[in-house]
Amino acid sequence: MPVSPRSDRSSRRGFTLIELLSAMGALAILVTVLFSMVNETSRLLYLSESQSSVLRRMRMASQLMTRDLQSAILPVNPAEQESLQFVLNPVAVTAPYRNPDALFWQAAVVNDRTDSDIAVVGYFVRWDNTDADNPRAKLCRLYVDSHRNGETR
């Protein structure tokens, strides 16, 4: 019994060109959606890590300021106006560090296990103008050891 060409084609179990193209189109859409999801997830992870880093630095700065404020002491010489507990730009602070947005105080510092000292500790805002379109404020800490001839660290 001879097989007609028409019945031979219908007995084959393959895909037509239309079916293959539609499957490839659906696959392309699926890959595009998955890629955009992965891209958005990685972007959110990066933002989360950046935010976490900023929060960690803020927490460290807050802890340092808390420790500095807890070590603030009463004036060594109450009659001397420069030795007030909180002062704006004391004499020990050199001209480049003088700033109207600054606050300084005397604090006890431990130099080693057997000796302690008094230092001027303070914080001030310094503007970073390296990018003229986007100036940024930086919180700076100044430490002046009273027995090191005004040496700043």
Total beta strand runs = 4
Query: What is the oligomer described by this structure?
Result: single chain
Order of strands, widest sheet: 1-2-3-4
Please state the average pLDDT score: 78
Query: Segments where pLDDT lies below 50 for 5+ residues?
Result: 149-153
Order of helices and strands: HHEEEE
Main β-sheet, in a few words? 4 strands, antiparallel
Account of the protein in words:
With 153 residues, the chain is of the alpha+beta class. 40% of the residues lie in helices and 22% in strands. It has two helices and four strands, in the order H-H-E-E-E-E. A four-stranded antiparallel sheet has the order 1-2-3-4, covered by helices on one side. It is rod-shaped. 8% of the residues are buried.
Q: What tags apply to this protein structure?
A:
153 residues; alpha+beta; four-stranded antiparallel sheet; 2 helices; 4 strands; rod-shaped; disordered C terminus
Can you give me a brief rundown of this structure?
A four-stranded antiparallel β-sheet has the order 1-2-3-4, covered by helices on one side. It has helices at 5-11, 17-70, and strands at residues 86-87, 102-110, 116-128, 136-145. Residues 149-153 have low confidence and may be disordered.
Write the layout of secondary structure elements.
Elements: H1 5-11, H2 17-70, E1 86-87, E2 102-110, E3 116-128, E4 136-145
Antiparallel strand pairs: 1-2, 2-3, 3-4
